[in-house]
Amino acid sequence: VPSPNGATVNTRYTRYQHSLGVALLALRYSKLRELNPSLKRLAYASALLHDIGHGPLSHSLEPVFEGAFGVNHHDATIQLIMGQSRIGQDVPHILLRHGVDPIEVIAVLSGDYDPFEGFFSGPINFDTIEGIMRSRQYALKGSRPVSPFRILIAAINRQNPEDQELVDRFWAYKHEVYSLVIRSRDGVLADYACQEIAKTEISSLSADDYFSTESNLFRKIPRLRKMLTSKSLAGFGFGKSISIQYKARDFYI
Fold first, then answer.
1. pTM for this model (two decimals)
2. Which terminus of the chain has fewer Cβ atoms in its 10 Å neighbourhood, N or C?
3. Which is nearest to 22 in space by CA: 50, 1, 41, 59?
C-alpha cells in the first residue's frame, strides 16, 4: 500500500494481505502433508481468520480499548467467527457452507486443538513465518529476501544440515525484526503516543469503534493521523526527554 496515511515516502502491507500470505502457507503445508480435504479446509480457514479480531491500529490501540471497554482481539476473534458481533455475521454461515466448523476454527486458533504439528500455536508457525519475513523485507530494504516457503519446508522436514541452518537462521531474522520494528525506539514511542492521544479523547470513542476502521478512527480523533504522519512529536505534548514503561516480547532457544 503506497503512501499510507498520507505519508508519501512510506509503503506498508495490510493485515488482509498478511492473512492471505498466512493462508497460502497453510495451504502449502496441507498439500505437502497430503491432508484430507476436511483438515485442509480447516487449516486454510483458520489461517485466513487468525487475525480477524484485530481492531484499528491493532496492537497500538488495543490496550486503550481493553481498558475502556473490555474488548481485545482474542474475544473479538471468537465473536466474529461465531457471528456474535454487529459485523461479520455471515462468517459462521460461510464456514459451515464449506464444511468447516466455526468451533473447530476457534479451537485451532486458541491452541486447544492441534492437528497441524504446532504450525498454528508452536514457536515457528504460519503467522510468524509470514509476518517476520515480510516485515524484514520492508525494514531491511536492499536485503536479500528469503522465501517464507523455504522456511516452512525446512521447519516441516528438518532432515539435513541445510534445513537446520535455515530454521536457526529464522530465529536470527525474528530477532532482527523485533529489534528494528517491534521494540525499536520508534515502535515503542509510536505505540505510546497513540495510546496517550486516544486516552485523552476516549469520550469520542465507543466499544463499537473497535470493529470500525482506521479511517473512521482518524475522523473521530484527527490528532492520531497528524501524529502518525508527523516527523516530530514535539507538537503533540511529547517532549524530547520522556520515560516510557513497556512490555518487551522476547524469545529464547
1. 0.89
2. C
3. 50
For residues 154-187, one letter each, b for 16 or more C-beta atoms within 10 angstroms of the residue's C-beta and e for the rest, the string is bbbeeeeeebeebeeebeebbebbbebebbeeeb
Task: Please tell me the distance from the alpha carbon of residue 204 to that of residue 229, in angstroms, as a whole number.
Answer: 21
- Provide long-range contacts, Cβ within 8 A and 24+ apart, for 56-59: 56/209, 56/210, 56/212, 56/213, 56/214, 56/216, 56/217, 57/194, 57/214, 57/217, 57/224, 58/15, 59/191
Cα dihedral 135→136→141→145 (10° resolution): -110
Please state, in angstroms and rounded to a whole number, the distance separating the CA atoms of residues 190 and 196.
10
Q: Which amino acid is at 184?
A: S
Q: Is the distance from CB of 87 to CB of 211 less than 8 angstroms?
A: yes
Q: Each residue of 134-191: pLDDT tens digit?
A: 888 888 877 777 899 999 999 999 889 999 999 999 999 998 888 888 888 888 888 8
Is pLDDT larger for residue 158 or for residue 247? 158
CA dihedral 13, 15, 130, 231 (to 10 degrees): 40
Question: Please, where are the H alpha helices in 70-125?
Answer: 73-81, 91-97, 102-110
